[in-house]
Design a protein that fits this description.
Elements: H1 2-11, H2 19-22, H3 36-50, E1 87-97, H4 105-119, H5 123-127, H6 130-137, H7 152-168, E2 179-183, H8 187-200, E3 214-215, H9 217-220, H10 227-234, H11 241-247, H12 250-262, H13 272-289, H14 301-319, H15 324-328, H16 331-349, E4 358-363, H17 365-374, H18 399-402, E5 408-416, E6 426-432, E7 435-436, E8 447-448, H19 449-455, H20 457-462, H21 465-468, H22 478-481
Parallel strand pairs: 1-4, 2-3, 2-4
Antiparallel strand pairs: 1-5, 5-6, 6-7, 6-8
Length: 482
């Protein structure tokens, strides 16, 4: 039934409101110029007010503010997080997003284009426009060669995360325990993996064959290997019709007019993409340099909420619940997690040492977001759309709270003694960004391994990557005609 829906979607018109586009989506249940000192103060306040709305470009500290005071703090103890006294961790599987990175070459080009427009303004026009003058004086220090590479702050993100995880699970991170470290082929992920290992220090015993970080794109970039996702979502502009509609909608129009006015530019010289780049410049300066950029002065908190929603719409329709294939393509990674947990359980039952007590893999926001959607987390009652911004003000799906820089999803398998039933002998916890998650089937932060496997039985047994990702048997040139 799903494939027939996709065939209809391919052949039809590209209107966002048409039932044809909806066919690919899953079904849903129901005045005076301030002084220089005051300007700096206002900028700092502006940044503080905006930083919670940077979406996937958010600092990790936004979800764990205590790290601003002490980057090695484990934070307040979560209520109800205590395990039974006789439980010992057997295996930890950590999926990490890379640390803070530089903008991509495309983002740097667009920022350069916007900055150049401000520099070309006549001096007389610039004189009466303080925001434009401040931004013209701003030094464009980004170079295209930085293209998404890991920033120094990103290395610190990973080193500190490694030290906190080791403090949280000392038995697993003890000396002579084997670490399996894998990464996406992207430079920022490889460097993040190396920084994570450095953070563990010399106490961790690493064999000579583990000096290099293993590249595993089949798991960390599964989306690149899924033909259906690439053709129907990644390379199909129609799939992003809700995003494009919101760019042209009244909320973005209001932001566009306000920014154009602040820069004393005709509104026709700006578009949603350029305004988004200015907002990204604000976020990057904070994340990379921990400074408040003059770009931040263009936006109020209300503007930031609109721009966050634009970012979340893209994440939702490209990586989240928008289309089934977004999450179904991640079942190869989901199943690999459980295969390693199964192996650890079998080794424990046979009184053998656990061959892989520590598995750490570094990927992307695009690695974690589909996996969390596959597991049913952060799902709202209605889909995010261009026309329901106000109704989604309190949505669960906020990418900056789910996959900021250095985001991490951790599965911990425990062996428990002194239990009433054999089923309770093996238990699991999940942590997202170092906070315990509540399992859907129990609304508890701990589950027996058997119950967890039973809850996800259909995905574990019936989600086959090759079949899920096979293209529908229609003329693929139809994609270009939409």
């Amino acid at each position: 039934r799903r494939r027939e829906g996709e065939r209809r979607w391919l052949r039809s018109a590209s209107s966002c409101g048409s039932p044809a586009v909806a066919a690919m989506a899953p079904r849903w249940a129901a005045a005076a110029l301030p002084s220089a000192a005051l300007l700096l103060l206002l900028l700092a306040v502006a940044s503080a007010g905006l930083s919670g709305y940077f979406g996937t470009k958010s600092r990790y500290e936004e979800v764990n503010p205590h790290l601003l005071r002490d980057p090695l703090s484990l934070g307040p103890a979560a209520a109800g997080s205590r395990l039974p006294a006789a439980c010992a961790p057997l295996q930890l599987r950590a999926l990490l997003r890379h640390g803070t990175r530089y903008p991509t070459a495309g983002q740097i080009r667009r920022l350069g284009e916007l900055h150049a427009r401000l520099l070309r303004r006549p001096a007389a026009a610039a004189a009466g426009c303080s925001a434009a003058a401040d931004l013209a004086a701003w030094q464009m220090w980004y170079e295209e060669s930085l293209d998404g590479r890991l920033a120094p702050q990103g290395r610190r993100d990973m080193e500190h995360l490694a030290r906190r995880l080791a403090a949280r699970f000392p038995a697993l991170f003890a000396a002579r325990r084997r670490l399996v470290l894998a990464s996406s082929s992207k430079h920022r992920c490889l460097q993040s993996g190396a920084a994570f290992r450095r953070g563990l220090g010399p106490s961790l015993s690493l064999g000579s064959d583990e000096v290099e970080v293993e590249v595993n794109d089949s798991l960390m970039r599964f989306f690149d290997h899924c033909a259906k996702f690439v053709a129907l979502v990644e390379e199909n502009d129609t799939a992003m019709c809700q995003v494009n509609a919101f760019k042209e909608g009244p909320e973005m129009r209001k932001v566009l007019e306000k920014v154009a006015s602040a820069l004393c530019l005709p509104v026709e010289e700006l578009n949603a993409d350029l305004v988004q780049v200015a907002f990204l410049a604000c976020s990057y300066e904070l994340a990379i340099k921990n400074v408040t950029s003059p770009w931040c002065s263009l936006f109020s908190e209300e503007d930031a909420k609109v721009l966050e929603y634009l970012n979340d719409l893209k994440q939702y329709w490209k990586r989240g619940y928008g289309y089934d294939i977004n999450s179904r393509s991640s079942c190869i990674l989901f199943q690999d997690i459980f295969q390693h947990l199964d192996k650890a359980v079998e080794e424990s039952k046979s009184s053998k040492p656990i061959s892989s007590p520590l598995i750490v893999q570094v990927g992307h926001a695009e690695t974690l977001q589909p996996l969390l959607a596959l597991m049913g987390f952060f799902k709202d009652d209605e889909p995010l759309k261009a026309n329901n911004y106000v109704r989604q003000m309190h949505r669960k799906f906020r990418s900056g709270r789910i996959v900021p820089y250095a985001a991490n999803l951790v599965f911990v398998l425990y062996h428990c003694d002194q239990v009433k039933t054999s089923k309770e002998e093996y238990q699991v916890q999940m942590l997202l960004n170092e906070k315990l998650m509540f399992f859907h089937h129990s609304n508890e932060t701990i589950s027996t391994y058997a119950d967890l496997k039973d809850y996800y039985k259909d995905i574990l047994e019936n989600c086959h990557f090759k079949e899920e990702c096979a293209l529908p048997k229609v003329n693929i040139t139809a994609v270009d005609e939409l």
